[in-house]
Amino acid sequence: MAPNLLLLDLGMAVSFATIVIPDLLNAPGSLSFTDNEASWFGSLSFLTQPFGALLSGPLVDYVGRKRATFLVNIPHVIAWILMYFAWNVPTLFIGNALLGIGTGIMEAPINSYVGEISEPSVRGALCTVTQLFLSIGIFAMYFLGSVVTWRVAAIICISIPFTSMLLVVIGAVPDTPVWLLSQGREKDALKSLCYLRGWTTADNVKEEFDQLVVYSKSLDGCVICWKEKREESQCDHYEMNVFKRFFTKFNIVMLCKETLRPLTLTMLYFTFVVMSGLTPVKPNMPFGALLSGPLVDYVGRKRATFLVNIPHVIAWILMYFAWNVPTLFIGNALLGIGTGIMEAPINSYVGEISEPSVRGALCTVTQLFLSIGIFAMYFLGSVVTWRVAAIICISIPFTSMLLVVIGAVPDTPVWLLSQGREKDALKSLCYLRGWTTADNVKEEFDQLVVYSKSLDGCVICWKEKREESQCDHYEMNVFKRFFTKFNIVMLCKETLRPLTLTMLYFTFVVMSGLTPVKPNMVNVCSAFGMADDSKNIVVMVGVITLIASVVVIGIIKSVGKRKLGISSMFGSAVCCTVLSIYAQANLADTVSSYDPKTFPEEKSVVPLIFFYLLTIFTGFNVSWVILGEVFPFRSRASAQGTGAAWNYVVMFIGSKTFIDLETHFRLAGAFATYAAFAYLGSIYLYFFMPETEGKSLQEIESYYEGRLRIFADDWFINIFKKKK
Asked: Which domain holds residue 617?
């Protein structure tokens, strides 16, 4: 009964938004949804459901089906209470997010419990009953919405999870026999089976129970030993790295045909069922960035530089010929995917072809061209229509593809060596060093050959320190081999350390002030009362960003990336602090960048100066430069794609949350928040960002392996270093 109550509650939760939105959309009073907020409220629970669903499996396996049936009610109890007492829109959003998480967490307990307690002859009928209770829950919520307010409906709904928890407490929900046997509780398992079969005796369930015992014993012990057909007494897998052990077990349990076949069936079935009603198209930059790493590793840096232009070519054509709004949306989505896919080829290529002495400057040149592109689009927007701008833009990817075709873009020597193409690698290095001779690059090429040979062969054999001649890993299941390689390459400290650095660096840079306000920059400048026309200020921001990129190219070699990164972050923190103090002292509480009627009439040069300074310091950040050089070759492209994807995710979060920060804490609070991020970023970079300027890629990789130390060597940081 308790699992059915969970489904009743689940049905009421997924349909709750339907009765709330009509009452609150543009309603009078403080508790009101805008159109955007209503759309978020209606979809938020679906966004958070996957997180709960992924948590539900480990929860059920750890605490058992019975306890899980109790615990999964807690998010919904909290959510219904928040809904009833909701005093503002964020409270409703938190409540709806908890409903989504709780709904997701319910999945495994319900399905596991019903599947494991049922006899085969009635399992289909019992599983169908669960869908019946889900439908009843949806109907009940629609009915409540027609007779009571949404607040009363929320407080009525809370009775469902409480009743479910009560049934568990009083013992009306026994744990499943299979799980009890897996915990070695044979007597409790027999007692549970007797209860579930109608309070019968042990003799009546003896045959079924014996089958369960045999099945349970086949699941005992170390799953890795079972897979390797080793004796349990020889097991040494508990000495493995916790992540490696987890993913090895994951490969064995989740990537076997007994799991993959039914998982494929259910996922495709769900896809066809859901998509038969509505097909949403919503691609984004992070997805393209995640694809870029595997693409670069598979086809090489040169071919990838050609292929990544294709989405943009199609996008610009669609933009020019756009005949309706959906066409524009598809074109913009392709621009996002193409932008994401470009990340790994750009960063990998520049990082691998550059000499250590000029790598920093060359990586900064990429940001200069990015700034030129932004400025060029602003300029085109002021002199031609957007359709003409789109057709002009198509010349850029075509030019890039042409340069690849005519051979002006050689592949990187490191990648060519990894493919066994030593002659091509030497030819490429000579070309990249200024059409020089092989003798002039012999020393550098020999170092690359040694480095490349250390990367040759089967990565699994390399990790296990086995001879290549004994390799049998190509006979492994393709998914298992992929995840085993993933563990070795992506979850090693040489990858995880720099990946943590770049992801946190991106987080602090994005959340340090300028990026979140860009979509609404014109109004933000007006809301501060800056002493110039807001549109002129936006143009100047583009010019200053361009100038900052040029300055960085000139000073990065002498100053170093570490000092530049820390200084720019701390400078952003100071600027945000001053803007926050100015807003608190000089702007009325009613001022909002989203309401032009509240803009101050008095103008001041103070916020203008510090906004320009914030632009300068943001332009001095070297996050993208670091991304291009800190990863080892084996994981470079994929890790760079992951880091770039994270940057876009944080940009989305920052842009999306600015309106909420300003609404609840005004401009002063919003910029105080950004200042806090920047101060934290300054501290983090001081302690954890190494100086990579002038270092070879091999030296940087060795540092992250722990063999070299290239941290700044000042007296303060030495206090925190481990004594050798």
From this structure: 492-718
Strand (E) or helix (H) holding 698: helix 697-705
Using left for φ > 0, alpha for ψ between -120 and 50, and beta otherwise, residue 311 falls in alpha
Instruction: Please name the residue that has the structure tokens 């926050």.
Output: 580
Confidence (pLDDT) at 282:
36
408-411 — which CB contacts under 8 Å span 24+ positions?
409/302, 409/305, 410/302, 411/300, 411/301, 411/302, 411/303
pLDDT of residue 329: 78
Q: What was the pLDDT predicted at 274?
A: 35
Would you state the pLDDT for residue 176?
65
- Counting DSSP H helices and E strands in the chain, the numbers are 34, 0
CATH classification at residue 685: 1.20.1250.20
Residue 228's Cβ-side half-sphere holds a number of Cα atoms within 13 Å equal to 15
Q: How far apart are CA 8 and CA 129, in angstroms?
A: 11
Please state, as a whole number, how many other Cβ atoms lie within 10 Å of the Cβ of residue 722.
Answer: 4
> What does 239-307 look like in DSSP terms, one character per residue?
GS-HHHHHHHHHHHHHSSHHHHHHHHHHHHHHHHHHHTT-------HHHHHHHHHHHHHHHHHHHHHHH
Contact of 70 with 123, CB cutoff 8 Å: no
Residue pair 641/285 in contact by the 8 Å Cβ criterion: no
132 is a domain residue? yes
Q: What is the pTM of this model?
A: 0.51
Q: How many domains does the chain have?
A: 2
Per-residue pLDDT tens for 600-642?
888 889 999 999 999 899 888 888 777 767 777 666 656 766 7
Q: Two tokens at 480?
A: 């298992």
The answer to whether residues 412 and 354 touch, using CB atoms and an 8 Å cutoff, is no
State whether the Cα torsion 528-534-538-544 is positive or negative: negative
Rounded distance between C-alpha atoms, residue 672 and residue 666, angstroms: 10
* pLDDT tens string 395-409: 888 887 887 777 777
Burial of 434 (0-12, 13-18, 19+ CB in 10 A): exposed
CB-based contact 556:564 (threshold 8 Å): yes
Asked if residue 689 is part of any domain, the answer here is: yes
The closest alpha carbon to 552, from 355, 352, 363, 357, belongs to: 363
For residues 527-551, average pLDDT: 78
Counting every residue, how long is the chain?
724
